[in-house]
Design brief:
Strand content: under 5%
Distance between the termini: 28 Å
Shape: elongated
Number of strands: 0
Oligomer: single chain
Radius of gyration: 16 Å
Helix content: over 70%
Structural class: mainly alpha
Number of helices: 7
Order of helices and strands: HHHHHHH
Length: 154
């Protein structure tokens, strides 16, 4: 889980291509899910909190990734490219698309009061309950990296 978090986020940092950035961030999001999976206790019946964390995280991640790709496809078709530079001035060209992208990026980054924040909070709470403090530490550091590359798009 820790290696997946580190690799996905560090590989996403220098990306200028939006599709590649989303691909590497998907690896990072798989790492957050693995943190919840690694936090499942070995006693019977304790899958509850970990299962809720995984389910909520997957649902929020799915919706925000679909929204990101929808905006990406529309922008790429109109600008003939999927590099980050094609998103410059999107708020002036299409405020509705820019708001959709803003919503998706804030949630994927885990800004408070978004589905991404709640999902990451549930994952980290499950990991703390299971005593996986190293994974929580790595997760917090990689969330900061995610803030950088997601908000760079905005």
């Amino acid at each position: 889980a820790g290696a997946t978090l580190l690799f996905g986020n560090l590989a996403a940092l220098p990306q200028d291509n939006f599709k590649r950035l989303l691909a590497y961030s998907s690896i990072a999001h798989a790492g957050y899910l693995l943190v919840a999976v690694a936090s499942v206790r070995e006693t019977v019946g304790s899958l509850g909190s970990s299962g809720v964390a995984v389910g909520f995280y997957l649902a929020g991640y799915l919706l925000m990734t679909l929204l990101s790709f929808l905006v990406l496809i529309i922008v790429a078709n109109h600008s003939r490219g999927d590099d980050l530079m094609h998103f410059n001035g999107l708020a002036k060209r299409s405020p509705f698309l820019a708001f959709g992208m803003l919503t998706a990026m804030l949630s994927l980054a885990g800004v408070p009061f978004t589905a991404g924040f709640i999902g990451k909070f549930l994952v980290f709470a499950t990991a703390v309950q299971a005593g996986k403090f190293v994974l929580v530490g790595i997760g917090i550091i990689t969330v900061a990296a995610g803030f950088y590359y997601y908000l760079r798009i905005v």
